[in-house]
Amino acid sequence: MTPPRPARAVRVPLTGIALAAFPALVGAQGVPPTSDRAQIERVVQDYFAAVDGHDRAILDRAFHPNAQLAAAIGGYWERPYEEWATFTRSPVAADVDERRNHVVSVDVAGSAATAKVILEWPSVRYVDYLTILKTDLGWRIVNKVWHQQPRWLGEFADAPTPFFPPPLDPTDASLLPEEVAPGVWVLRGDRGAVNNIGLVVGEEAALVVDAHITRELADEAIRLVRTITDLPIRWLANTNPHGDHTFGNAAFGPETTILGHTSHERTPEEFATEVAVLRHFTGKPELFADAEFRGPDQVFEHRMEIDLGGRIVEFLHVGPVNTEGDVLVHVPDAGVAFTGNLLTRAQVPLLWTGDARDWLRLVETVEEMGARLLVPGHLAPVEATAILAEARAYGEWLDGAVDAALELGWSPLRVGEDLALPERFMPPGPAGFQSMVRGFHALNALRTAQRRTPS
Ligand SMILES: [Zn+2]
To answer: 118-132, 158-172, 220-234 — which is least confidently predicted?
Structure first.
């Protein structure tokens, strides 16, 4: 990991738009601003500099200490200034040089003003509305409300507005070992949607399922495996090619053969996109500074099995559902299946590459497999009987509802953004989790509509 960059003064260039909004500033460098408009401009530029440089002293020059912030992104959110401003304690973001901030408009009436500003970051675009008052302290921002629109990459580029990614950031996460059947373990990520690792122990060898999101977490998983068994880790299987399942591959030694679907191979460009996506998803570019690619050593097309000594493990390609390369890892004698990004606690999946019918096909495959316990790559293991009927009901509803919306003349994008998820399919959980599920559903509706619409 790269060390955090020290906070430093950030000079924010005045863009053409900013200059047009503030003609009084042109040619006035070095002279303390006197007009109200120029002082407001100073406040806004301080705000930009403080956000980019994580500089609390500059931030305090821009905001009134009693200021309030609010947004309505995935639910209503508000904070007093003092609480929001704690972001300045974290290291300056690595993408700071690629950010572009500008002022769209300013409106002043005596002692009150509003400003609309845009902060263009590589991963997200913020549109802020600032309320600014001439207080005893001078002009100060007293209120900020905003909208943020993530910029996605690669296969994520066209995600509809309600979508936001699961919380994959592994900072401070632990892996908690739990034996779910004799010799079958899950090392559970203990926060957010941080990845799980699977372990299957036979009489002669062990199989690890998925390699986690960073080298560090993969090393921790290997350490935990060593507290459970001395047998060689002869195989590591990836349930999909995404970085949160594969970036730890490189931590495994030459004695471990990595198994994957043919679609798990990655060109250097594809690997770079995986890294960029996870930088954006986690907001922690520094976690992936030395991410290293190690692809599968042995690939299969449809199905393969291995013998761990007295124990057969079956691998089944079931993509495209969440990815082209979704793989189920089935341990028949234990009644356990590792399902990767599929069949997590929510019966609403995330169909990046598949559609409603692919989802129904997957549900049928798992039903036929007959596993009692499903161990997803994220969140807690779930009894098959507790989720499959609901998962099928959602797929059948989505299949019909998308057709009906298209018949009404809706565009695929409108289907993604406006086809509401019925409450009966919403899993219980906190508001943030439910907003995430709603975003997943928006993508599922979009993908299903796109497949039905000739392009
Ligand atoms: Zn995943």
So the answer is: 158-172
